[in-house]
Amino acid sequence: MYGANLAGLLDGPARWAPERPAVLLGERPVRTWAALSEAVARRAGGLRERHGIGPGDAVAIFASNHPAYLELLFSIWHAGGVAVPISSRLHPREAADVVERGHARVCFATEDTVAGLEGALREAAEEGAFAANGTAAATGAPPLVVLGSPEDAALEAAEPVTPVARRFTDDAWTFFTSGTTGKPKGARLSHGNLFAMSSAYLADSDAVGPRDSMIHVAAFSHASGLMSLPFLCRGAAQVLPPSLGFDAGELLGLLAAGERSSFFVPPTLLRRLAAHPGAGELAEGRIGTILVGAAPVLPVDLRDGVAAFGPVLWNGYGQGESPCTITANGKQAIGDAVADGDDACLRSVGVARVGLTVRALDAEGNEVAPGEVGEVCADGPTVMGGYLDMPEASAETLRGGWLHTGDLGFFDERGRLTLVDRAKDVIITGGYNVYPREVEDVLDLDPAVAEVAVVGAADPEWGERIVAFVVPAAGAALDETALDRRCLEAIARHKRPKEYRAVAELPRNAAGKVLKKELRRQAEAGGEDERAAG
Question: Which of 90, 153, 299, 510 counts the most CB atoms within 10 A of its CB?
């Protein structure tokens, strides 16, 4: 009996499409649906037998995308456990911290991540990090298993077990947030949250079925792994590119080989894919949906994507606390907006998802009028149960019965949400509020700009001064006069940067988000140096 266990999503495809490929490495089948279902039941037996994993026990995964990743994920749920996926881009010490704070009883890694993590776990154990969380093994740290190792193979050789029944409110996935302003928080996502997320996607998008596949360009530990669930439950094959890094040519080859494939990419990778010489050579119908998100998506990105691939782009807005599910601009809406030149639609992140109530609220919790900026707040079955071991942060984020996203935005008369910035990133200069994103959107249009991030730095005269960190395009130089002119032609004078800084790259966290806290530190340090020199 599954109850509300997500492991039951495999039951359908294993019965009505048992011999169809479920997991492929490139074009090579790794598991059929029947074989995947059996392997999950055996791994669950191994987790129970060798590591004592039962209802509510946490299992960490610090791994790059691996053919056995989804198999392991579902075996954790099958055994009644809670998955703690960790981005493989984290530093091993950061990963060890998540292993400890996630209360993991065992941790899985891949060959490319294990060496650093092994030492980091040992150091953490020597410092007593695992002594108080109830998961310490005899050696202090939880055991570490490498996917594909003999120890891992022993799990697959175990006797299969029946799935543990779970309730909709039971935790399934502890999603550790990106941590742009401090240590990441573990959002507790239940089986019900992820069922609702999957249902919302299937209700809001085109039909998904066994002829489809999901290509995992992005990491399983974040949006790609979460978005695999609605595809997986409909029997769509899960495809892993052989290369761990992004390879536009390889992805286009996999798209050409499949019948109809979808994939998730952030806007930076969408730009690289659309600019590839082979982008226009795909046969019609080979792409189901290009899911774009995880960072602001510019109208020009959507126009270029539609020009290269047709009306197949879907721009979703969500966060770990409401996984992948707050609002979305669907394929039809984006395609029509490109055809009509409707940049207001392209700048938006669309309308509320099925089952979600989304509002822009003021500081007192009142809904603001259309066109007015407020904090984006959401309520619905995808909203987390709270943060792991952080009752005060949970109460603050979920106050008044709403998920307070920390994002600022406004709705138009048609219910479309446009984000303007993070609340913590708003710059107050000379008494005026300036949203960095509106300045970034203007500067991003300059062909000499590859990337830009705008922050506020403390200033004795203005309160804060606006500083733009610019990554010049290849072969281009920073032209402050041209950038100033572009700003003055598009936005109010007080919104233009008072300082431009050319940088080779923008600092980012493991999820690829720009670390504006670090940029503010650099801006203020530079300002102090300049004032001292003056």
Answer: 90
**Which of 54, 153, 176 is CA-nearest to residue 106?**
54
Q: Which amino acid is at 164?
A: V
pLDDT at res. 435: 79
Tokens of 482: 């041209």
Q: Which residues contact 207 (CB under 8 A, 6 or more apart)?
A: none
Structure tokens at 11: 């039951």
Tell me the pLDDT band of 136, cut-offs 50, 70 and 90.
Answer: very low
* Distance, CA of 72 to CA of 59 (rounded, Å): 10
- What would the 3-class secondary structure string for 429-452 be? ECCEEECHHHHHHHHHCCCCEEEE
SS (H, E, C) 498-534: CEEEECCCCCECCCCCECHHHHHHHHHHHHHHHHHHC
Residues 6+ away with beta carbon under 8 Å from 531 = none
In this structure, the strands spanning 186-190 and 171-176 are: antiparallel
Banded pLDDT at 133 (limits 50, 70, 90): low
Per the structure block, which two tokens stand in for 70?
């989804």
**CA 384 to centroid of chain Cα atoms:** 15
b/e burial code for range 163-173 (CB count within 10 A of at least 16 → b): bbebebebbbb
Q: Closest by alpha carbon to 40, among 16, 65, 6? A: 6
Provide the pLDDT for residue 283. Answer: 87
| Torsion angles phi and psi, residue 216, rounded to 5 | -95, 85
Rounded Cα distance between 298 and 289, Å, is: 18
Write the DSSP symbol of residue 20: S
Secondary structure of 211-225 as H, E, C letters: CEEEECCCCCCCHHH
Contact in structure between 297 and 269 (CB atoms under 8 Å): no
Helix, strand, coil shares of the chain as percentages rounded to 5?
Answer: 35, 25, 35
Q: Rounded to two decimals, what is the model's pTM?
A: 0.86
Question: Which pLDDT belongs to residue 181?
Answer: 47
Residues 194 and 229: their CA atoms lie apart, in Å, by: 8
Phi (first) and psi of residue 90, to 5 degrees: -70, 155
| Average pLDDT of span 229-250 | 94
Between the CA of residue 156 and those of 37, 71, 223, 324, what are the distances in Å? 12, 10, 27, 31
Read off the pLDDT of residues 360-415 as tens digits, 9 standing for 90 and up.
999 999 999 999 999 999 999 999 999 999 999 999 999 999 999 999 999 999 99
> Taking Cα atoms as reference points, which of 321, 275, 269, 276 lies closest to residue 290?
269
**C-alpha 67: how far from chain center:** 20
Paired tokens of 275: 């600019």
Among 342-346, 460-464, 474-478, 513-517, which is the least confidently predicted range?
Answer: 460-464
**Distance from C-alpha of 110 to C-alpha of 227, rounded to nearest angstrom:** 22
